[in-house]
Structures are given as C-alpha cells and as structure tokens.
Amino acid sequence: MALTGLQIQKLLPKTNCKECGSNTCLAFAMKLAAKKAELSECPYASEEAKQVLGAASEPPVKTIELGPKKNLKIGGETVLYRHEKTFVNQTALAINLNDTDSMESIDTAFAAIASYSLYRVGETLTLDLIALTQKGKDPRHFSNLAKRIWEKASKPLILRSCDLASTRQAAEAVKGSGSILSAATLESAKELLPIAQECGHALAITAENLDELVLLVEKLKTKGFNDLILQLQTHSPAEQFQTNSVARRAALKDSCKALGYPFLHFIENPDLLASTSEAILEINKYGSIVVLPGFNPAQLASLLTLRLNIYTDPQKPIQVEPKVYAIGDPTPNSPIFVTTNFSLTYFVVSGEIENSGISAWLVVPECEGMSVLTAWAAGKFNGTVISKFVKEIGLAEKVQRRELVIPGYVAQISGELEENLPGWKVLVGPQEAADLESFIKTRLS
Ligand code: SF4
C-alpha cells in the first residue's frame, strides 16, 4: 500500500541536512510519496526505511518473470479496472498438449503453434507458452516430450502432472527454461518446492478454496520462495468470474498479500464456443495465463485481438511511425494521400487504398496518435504541421506528382497547406475512408 508523505517522514533521520537536495526531510518525504525521488538520494536512510519503502513500492500483485531470459512477464497489476490507470502485463495464452496424444498429432499441433502469428495494428501477436499435461503413466515419456517441445519451440512450458517423479524428471529436462510446474497442493508442496527452486521454475499452487490457498502461500513464503502462480479451482464460468474477482479485489483493495499473485487457468471444455467464452472471461477478469484445450487459428485471432484491446493503455493511443508509406508498388507519379498516425486511422485508410487496387503513397505526420478531427482540433494536423513534415521527409525529391489528397473532414486546411507548399495542389478527399475507393475511381483515374 502506498505511504503518505508524513508516514515516510517518520522513517527518515529528520536532521534536515539537505544532502538529498531538499530543504527538509519532510519535503524529501513528500517527493518520495509522489514518486519524484528515490530513497537512495538520502545517504542516511536506515535499513528499516529501506525495507518499509521497498515493500510499499512493490505492486500489490507480484510480477512473475518466465522464460530463459525472464522476458515473459505476468502479474504486476495495480488496479481493478483498466480505466483507473492501465493493466500492466497482458494475459499470456498457451495451448495444451497431452502426453497420450500420438507423436504425429503432437508434432502437427506443435508446428502450427510455433509458426502461428497474427499481425494487428502494427504488432505481431503470437502464443506465449505451451502446456504439457501428463495423462499417461510413463515419467520418461513425459520428460522426453517436455524436452523435445522446449528444444523446438524455445517457449516456456507449463508442466502439468500429478506424479512427483514425472514432474521432477520433466522439470530437470527443461532446466533453465523458466517454466511453470503445475500444481502444488498442501500435500505436495513440500516435495515440489525444492524441484522448482533447483531448476529455476515458477510453481503453480492450487487448493479447494481461497482460505486453503492463502495458507499454502504463507507456508511457501516462509521457505523464502516467491515465484508463485495461483491456480484457482472453480466448477463453472460463474464461479470462475466470482473467485477471480474476489481474489484480485482482496489483493488490491484489502492488501491481502497471499492472494497478490498472477492466476493460471486451464480450460478443459473442448467445445469451441464454451472455451472461447471462458478465455474471454479470463482475459477480461484477471487471468494471467490461459491454457486453451487445442489449437484453433480462428479462436486465437479473436482472443489475441481482444487481449490487444484490453491491455492497450487507454491514455496512450496506438500509433504508427510518422513517415511516408508505400501502398502497393508506387511510382513517382502515384497519388499521394495524407492522414494521421493514429493506428486505426492509418490501417483503415491504407486498407481502403489497397482495396481500390491502386498503388499510392501515404504521408503520415506525427499527430500524437490522434484521429483526424481530434488532431485537427488539437492543432496537430493542420497546414503548418503537414507542410513542415512534407519538407522534412523530402517528399518533393521522392515523387514527381505535386498533388496531396487530404481527408474531407479537414477541408478547411487546404488553403493554408497550398500556401505553405508552393507548387503543390491540394485535393480534398472524402470524409469517410470507406468512400476512398469511389473517390479514387472518379477523381484520380
Ligand atoms: Fe533528511 Fe536524508 Fe534529506 Fe538529509 S538527506 S534532509 S536526512 S532526507
């Protein structure tokens, strides 16, 4: 929980020596509370102050880092609702494979998983992990499969097994992969904990209810292990929704540290509609890792797109790089369109130009990711801004055509733009991108 300036001041030496750059310890405490200073700037801070302030600055949901380079992060959340601030680490998606599946079907699924990617608004989206569930009884087969998948995919695994010997063998086979062992219970935690510690894996833990889960977390924390992931047991989507919400609220609002860990959820129902709605629930309500029962590219496209929307910072619009884009294979005489660098605007406009079947240039100045009318109202998309950008990128040297098509919504800037770009003609395009195709056919051909 965040400390106030007065609470922080009580932890400082109160000598007002000014060595931190503030006139008093209170002024420095206020800066710390506002996160405008670091405690290390006070050379006389006590160990107690370092401990208390260090704990207070940790997010209420612990960040767990997975993968060999620890670059897959889950958890770290600080708010219940996206509009309060932003969600930090997006829900990781995984596909489950069973050790009882034929080698041929595992290889087929595996190849599809490894090569899958989806391009959306300038980002390439892929799967994050692969889960391997032991349904058979052969520890060696389970660990061999884990090793094979890890070596081929280089993605962290979720090793799900009820058998201790199998878990140990598989965990050792993928040592250093930063995977997850699923799942320790009150009974098995004692044996699983040293395996996770020795092999550098995170430990998923599970219990029948939240009270038992809290007990288990506290038990493991006393052993100094903190790379924990909560695998909540629920029996219906309604219970899943309720349990996730109760646990996350307890962590964020009631400072219940034992529930302040990321959540892992396996979807068992193979029905496409049911598994999709369960995954949607998890992406919206606090799932940190969702394991899908099988590989379906249509389902993944929907879920990855939803995830992109939920985990985009609403305060920072998605932007494309300001530059001149080639659509198709344009020549120096191809038409030149202008729009803003708000991703959605860029992709809609470029898509409509592509659909019209022509090649063209698309000039996209820096507009702080705003749409056309918003950018115009904010003074970020006007004759001065566009003409300055056209000169900076040397457009006149790239093309022979001297005609810019601007969006119909900003027809009023055409005069200013022509004044700032002598020798250029400005054509007012349609207001809606959907009308670009007919505009191109009637006005540019
Ligand atoms: Fe107070 Fe430390 Fe700053 Fe000195 S350096 S004024 S003791 S906070």
Description:
This protein has 445 residues and is an alpha/beta fold. The protein folds into three domains: 5-53, 3-methyladenine DNA Glycosylase II, Chain A, domain 3, CATH 1.10.15; 63-310, Dihydropteroate synthase-like (TIM Barrel, Alpha-Beta Barrel); 323-444, Rossmann fold (3-Layer(aba) Sandwich). It is 41% helix and 17% strand. The chain is built from 17 helices and 17 strands. It has helices spanning 5-9, 25-33, 47-57, 103-115, 139-153, 164-173, 189-199, 210-222, 237-253, 272-284, 297-310, 343-356, 372-377, 383-392, 395-398, 414-420, 436-444; strands at 63-66, 72-75, 92-98, 118-120, 123-125, 129-133, 157-160, 180-184, 202-207, 228-232, 264-266, 289-292, 323-327, 336-338, 360-364, 403-406, 425-428. It has an eight-stranded parallel sheet with strand order 10-9-8-7-6-3-12-11. Strand 16 (403-406), helix 16 (414-420) and strand 17 (425-428) form a beta-alpha-beta unit. Helix 5 packs parallel to helix 6 and helix 10 packs parallel to helix 11. The termini are far apart. The relative contact order is 0.08. The mean pLDDT is 93. The structure holds iron/sulfur cluster. Iron/sulfur cluster is lined by residues 12-13, 15-20, 22, 25, 28, 42, 44.
Please describe the structure with a list of short key phrases separated by commas or semicolons.
445 residues; alpha/beta; 3-methyladenine DNA Glycosylase II, Chain A, domain 3; TIM Barrel; Rossmann fold; eight-stranded parallel sheet; five-stranded mixed sheet; globular; binds iron/sulfur cluster
